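Human: I would love a firmer grasp of how sequence relates to backbone shape in proteins. Take your time, and here it is.
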Amino acid sequence: MSRRAIKAINWSAIAERVPEEQKGLFVAFKAKSDQYLRRMMANPETSPKLNWEYYRKNVTTPGLVEKFQKEYEALQVPFPADKYTSLIDGEEKKILQEIEEFRQKCEQDIEKFSETVAKLKAIMPYNDMTIEEFLEYHPECAAGTVYNPSIWPHTPLMKECENLSPEDDDDDDH
C-alpha cells in the first residue's frame, strides 16, 4: 500500500456505516491506523541521499567508502507481497452474488405479494360481506361450518379427536 492509498481512506464514509454498538471499536481502529500513519510519515519515502565525497575525504581506509556506497545504492527494501487483495475481491464477488440472489428472491416475493394484494382489493369489503361470502373467500377460518366441521368446543384437542377412526377408539370394546 502506498502513502497515497493510506491518505485516501475516507474515514467519515466508513464511520457512517459502522453500527452504533461498534463505534468504540471503530475509534480504536482509526487511532491505531493514525498512529501507524504518523510513524510511516516520520520516515522518508526514499533513502536519504548521502554526500559520498565528504566520506571519501574523511575516511582513511581505502575502498571502504566505495564498498558502502555500492551496497547502499544496491539496497532494496522489499515491500510485503499483497496476498489479501485477491481474497477480498473474491469475497466481494461472492457477497455481490448473494445480494443479487437475495434481490431476485425479493422481487419474486414482491410480485407474489402484489398478486395477493390485487386479489384482496378485487373482493368486496369485509364490512359488506355475509358470513357465507367470508367463509367462501377464507375456508381456513370456517371452524364448525360446512366448510370445516368440528365439534364443540372448537379446540385443537377436539380436532385431533375428530380425526380418530373408529378402529382407534378402544372404549367401545368395554
Summary: Residues 85-122 form the longest helix (38 residues).
